[in-house]
Amino acid sequence: MSYTNSVSMDDGNMVFNLMPNADFGYKVHGDPFSTNTRRVLAVLLEKGISYEPITVDLKTGEHKRESYLSLNPFGQVPVFEDGNIKLCESRAITQYIAYVHSSRGTQLLNLQSHKTMATLTMWMEFEAHQFDPFASVLTWEQVIKPIYGLETDQTVVEENETGLENVLNVYEKRLQESRFLACNTFTLVDLHHLPNIQYLLGTPTKKLFENRPKVRTWVDDITGREAWKLACDHDKS
Predict the structure, then answer these.
(1) What DSSP string runs through 82-141?
(2) 176 Cβ neighbours under 8 A, 6+ residues apart
(3) What's the average model confidence in pLDDT over 91-118?
(4) SS3 of 18, please?
(5) HSE of 92 in the Cβ direction (CA atoms, 13 Å)?
(6) Residues 182/160, Cβ–Cβ less than 8 Å
(7) How far apart are CA 135 and CA 201, in angstroms?
(8) Could you tell me which residue ranges the GST N-terminal domain spans (predicted)?
(9) Element (H, E) at 207
């Protein structure tokens, strides 16, 4: 599937439309419900780049079989193939795609300004090392474990909600100065947050995002993007 952005005007407002585009021969091995897989799909869709989706069934342990371990010896999804290049780790993959296709689709990096790029890189690190540790545990406890018939540990949930609250307090202050986290435009920083946020909006942890006005507006903006909606639709993505 392939989409790219075109711009049109509606009553004076700029509107971004997703339109079909060319095939680069990319392959994405992953599970459509995996947060890390969705992170990669979102970038491809923002860039209007087609790809061949190859489903890896996590429930049956396909990611731990020898055939998959030959792609990623750590047995994790996703794996991204660009010819003879095989990449693992979703954030490394998104940056690769954003760099290679910097002039295409949504501009997810700012390569023209060293200062903005440094700020963007810093906030990507904040997402990976400050936001994600709490958000991933909360997603696991409240969303993934019930799928596998496991019981949610409410003590773990409470502990990690406390940690996430502290992070979101920092975000609330930052978003008083900037529409998005790194700058005033949507970037990889915001996109990297999407998978866990989307799942947590369906849990009681949703209140942590809704109780902070600037965070709530930011969440509404980024979760409402057409590319992200497609990434979450496993039939279409």
Answers:
(1) ETTEEEESHHHHHHHHHHHTTTSSS--S--S-HHHHHHHHHHHHHIIIIIHHHHHHHHII
(2) 214
(3) 94
(4) strand
(5) 10
(6) no
(7) 11
(8) 24-105
(9) helix 206-210
* pLDDT at residue number 59: 85
pLDDT of residue 55: 92
Longest Cα–Cα distance of the chain, Å, equals 56
Is the model's pLDDT at 14 over the cut of 70? Answer: no
Token pair listed for 161: 């909600």
Residue 161 scores a pLDDT above 60: yes
Q: Is residue 25's pLDDT more than 70?
A: yes
Amino acid at 200: L
Nearest to 46 by CA among 88, 109, 92, 89: 109
Q: Measure CA of the first residue to CA of the last residue in the chain; give whole Å.
A: 7
